[in-house]
Amino acid sequence: MKLEKHNLIVKRSYKEVYKTDEGIVKIFETIHPKSAIFNEALNTVRVEETELNIPKLKEVRQIDGKWAIIIEYKAGKTLEELMEAEPENLEKYMSDFVGLQLNVQKKRAPMLNRLRDKLARQIASLTALDATQRYELQMRLESMPRHAKLCHGDFNPSNVIVERNGRMTVIDWAHATQGNASADAAMTYLLLALENQEKAELYLNLFCKKSDTAKQYVKKWLPIVAASQLEKENEFRKDFLMQWIDVAD
After folding, report:
1. Mean pLDDT for the chain overall
2. Kindly report the CA angle at 242 between 236 and 245, in degrees rounded to 5?
3. Nearest to 79 by CA among 54, 98, 51
4. Can you tell me the distance from the alpha carbon of 72 to that of 188, in angstroms, rounded to the nearest whole number?
5. Average pLDDT for 184-202
6. Residue 247's pLDDT is what?
């Protein structure tokens, strides 16, 4: 397979994503753990088995000595692009976005890793927090209810493709787990708040109304999920995250 630069659609420090005749090709740098690549592929297959409308895994193989994942291509615009192009329809799009997330969370994928275990590992390995802060966060996590709902882990409008017929599909299942839906909602809130606080509040209002969940309950998860992302400096601002972690004090 020859990957042309003009077909490059996403570039990160550890991967490049191309649109090709075979589908979407994610090719990973050699520094990226092989286990993480195969885990992403396995997550995708396990979510496929829930019968959600997602791009299916086609192949995992090496290209020029690097591991690559090939998945189906879904034509359309991202929900983020539509929100930006039609600000007058923001509330409708956000309502659709929340409805899609709730539909995802109705599914079960019992072979996925547990979100609680993942969060506990991430908090335990943090160097940005001292032992007292890590202990407080671990105790908060331990006190939260245990659920087994399908959680995307990076559910944001840029990961939703709206096809020409209006059908929505969720992409990028690298962080999928089973766990508490409100923890996943708290992560979505943080992702939106990082860019636009008003959008984040609109999202939270709609999520809580549609799911009949108290805002206070979702916000109890915020210090936990914020802490779990502290090491991901390319994706989150540390100072922004620390503001939410301080809520745990």
Report:
1. 93
2. 115
3. 98
4. 25
5. 96
6. 56
